[in-house]
Inverse folding.
């Protein structure tokens, strides 16, 4: 195992040259920001680098640099935003490209000497429990990790790379995985990369790591109390899916360690023939819903896509279709792919009424259905009236074409769907040519 | 309603001529039996006519005559059987045809002057609670009804005809309906045909009629304590299906009385075209299992067919087929017809393992499936391992051809199935030409 880890580290640990480049870039940007604060007579601005760059826990090839400008809490919010953007914009003049991002307040994102730089204004509060906006917490995390990480940096690198390669890294809502801060805390808590895996191999939902006594209880699969804020679960964004995947992968690695656990493989797009062969082998029904991806950030898009996914599953099941799997993919188009036991059903459905002896209700039921020309049959089964009625939709495509608008869709997805969508069934999915989607299908088929 | 009932009675009430013929036949047979008892020096034999013929509750055109020969309870059972058959066989010499039947003990069935005559030996016990064999009860029933039926005969005729026409009459196991004695008791208890219907319209399962205090409690849908034996529920053979059908029919008749309720209509056999049209309209899957009807009495055959029906439904559902309806029919061949939502399914099935955190079990599950070349896919869903495995049977026909022998079949049906059976799917059912089956299909399609 040691040999494997050594090999992996050689690949993922930044070289001295890479480190120097980062340090120089960071120093330069800090200096420029400080100068700009003075030039513009901005009071009480303090600069600091935060995140993995500041903690020596960044992986070679990733070029993220987070520069925080902190202000006194007495500064009005508008002023904080104004000053933050002012410094950001002026540095941006020297950048390859830039844009403004909006989280709780605006910040500046720029490409600078090949680095992805975020320039973020925040408040310099007394403690993480007294934050004014979510970003105010970051400097406290930074401080805590810097105080405890010495000697464990390599273990953090290994854990991050392991998680990245296996698809459980990243706390954005699309992934619902482990954040960088969470991996660092896990390594600090357990003592090494391997010890984290050993522990994870026996985790159960509700697993709680109290680096500090929590102020209340949490419901998430994994609970890691933030040592800088006992009100917060650092693993709050981790889904049950990613939690259990990590457990499973930890066991696998410990049983049979290999470098492949640290290598992210990109699936090849499936060809038409591969798709058809796979469908033929599975003999299931495929339906895909396609629409223009709404123009919004991923943290807003993906929760809406997931909501749509659940809602479409429910719609199908309400109409007696049996869903095997569903999956969302988003590129220029967003595509919800659905695999069904059968994509078409009979024309009839059994509609059970009340037991015959529940007089009033059963008589109403009988009255309603027995003389309806659409009723296929009316009889008693297990003491209950049964009306055989025509199905409104005996093909999943028809159902989705007619009823998708009745599904709970998020605001942006809904707007996009309103503008038009297409339902493809069976071989029609071959009309989707996007290579990203075709690669994504490989996980599915 | 009175007019309708009058009209029906005109049709179903035996004419004076018919009655005279019955009385003459009964008298002759009684006299002959008495003579034979004396001739053969059979001690203590007493003759009586029992059943509807003795109670004036028989419907015109039915020609059943039950003659009971009762003996002293001290007579050994072999002697009783010997004497019963001896008298029966000698009378049989004058009959058009005859056979020996076997219930608890042997009796003689004969065709005599157009009547279906049963000559049955029984014990002359003190009370119905002290019976030695089940037939010993009949004379007590006869006595009770004769004492209470005066003036209600027409109402019994109407109720019997109503139940016959609607398919709920007959306590044999094939039907699971109302016995003649039960209809008589209901009329005596409620006071008239119409009053029985009024009461039935509001019956619920567990409805209990205590013409005498019961000695224990009963679980059947309808409980009518036998006035001659408080240990017995006269309605024990009545199924929930027939019970609720009768409730429903009673309400219908009271709402809109009509002579059609008293007319049994024989369904026409369906033509090939009619069957195909109906299948096309329903778009369901049809499968039929055919085998030689075992050579046994209906009270043994039908419970075995019903057992097979339930067992085949379970088999199909275990393999993920969705059963809409099933039905049994028996002529020369026995045929179990099954209607399915889809007669074929996908090639894959999702096999859910334990939650990932149940370490030992989930690791075993993973080990077992992940390297199996037949596994289509292996993943985590809702925290549980899922293996996508090939279905053993993706067509219902294949399943039934291969696994029918694993179903719980009764002794006779099992023997017959062992000798060979055929599974027909879809249009293949057109190969079944029996008109009885084709008529039976009309209820189904």
């Amino acid at each position: 195992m040691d040999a494997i880890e050594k090999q992996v580290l050689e690949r993922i640990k930044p070289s001295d040259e890479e480190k120097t480049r980062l340090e120089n870039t960071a120093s330069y940007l800090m200096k420029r920001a400080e100068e700009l604060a003075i030039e513009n007579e901005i009071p009480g601005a303090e600069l600091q680098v935060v995140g993995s760059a500041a903690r020596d826990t960044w992986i070679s090839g990733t070029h993220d640099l987070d520069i925080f400008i902190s202000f006194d809490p007495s500064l009005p919010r508008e002023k904080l935003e104004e000053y933050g953007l002012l410094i950001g914009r002026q540095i941006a003049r020297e950048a390859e490209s830039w844009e403004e991002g909006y989280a709780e307040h605006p910040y500046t994102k720029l490409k600078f000497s090949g680095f992805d730089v975020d320039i973020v204004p925040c408040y310099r509060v007394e403690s993480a429990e007294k934050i004014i906006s979510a970003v105010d917490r970051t400097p406290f995390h930074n401080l805590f990790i810097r105080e405890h990480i010495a000697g464990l940096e390599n273990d953090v690198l290994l854990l991050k790379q392991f998680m990245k390669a296996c698809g459980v890294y990243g706390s954005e809502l699309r992934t619902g995985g482990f954040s960088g801060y969470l991996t660092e805390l896990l390594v600090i808590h357990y003592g090494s990369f391997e010890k984290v895996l050993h522990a994870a191999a026996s985790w159960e939902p509700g697993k709680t790591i109290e680096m500090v006594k929590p102020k209340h209880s949490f419901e998430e699969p994994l609970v890691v109390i933030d040592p800088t804020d006992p009100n917060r679960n650092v693993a709050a964004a981790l889904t049950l899916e990613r939690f259990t995947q990590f457990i499973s992968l930890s066991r696998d690695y410990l049983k049979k360690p290999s470098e492949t656990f640290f290598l992210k493989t990109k699936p090849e797009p499936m060809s038409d023939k591969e798709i058809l062969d796979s469908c033929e082998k599975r003999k299931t029904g495929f339906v895909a819903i396609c629409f223009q991806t709404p123009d919004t950030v991923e943290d807003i898009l993906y929760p809406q896509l997931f909501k749509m996914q659940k809602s479409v599953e429910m719609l199908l099941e309400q109409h007696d279709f049996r869903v095997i799997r569903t999956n969302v993919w988003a590129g220029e188009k967003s595509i919800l792919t659905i695999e069904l036991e059968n994509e078409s059903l009979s024309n009839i459905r059994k509609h059970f009424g009340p037991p015959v002896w529940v007089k009033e209700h059963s008589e109403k039921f009988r009255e309603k259905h027995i003389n309806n020309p659409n009723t296929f049959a009316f009889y008693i089964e297990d003491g209950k009236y049964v009306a055989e009625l025509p199905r409104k939709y005996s093909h999943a495509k028809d159902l989705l074409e007619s009823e998708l608008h009745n599904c709970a869709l998020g605001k942006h997805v809904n707007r996009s769907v309103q503008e038009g969508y297409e339902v493809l069934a069976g071989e029609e999915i071959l009309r989707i040519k996007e290579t990203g989607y075709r690669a994504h299908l490989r996980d599915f088929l």
Q: What stands out?
A: The radius of gyration of chain A is 28 Å. The mean pLDDT of chain A is 94. Residues 82 and 106 of chain A are 9 Å apart (CA to CA).
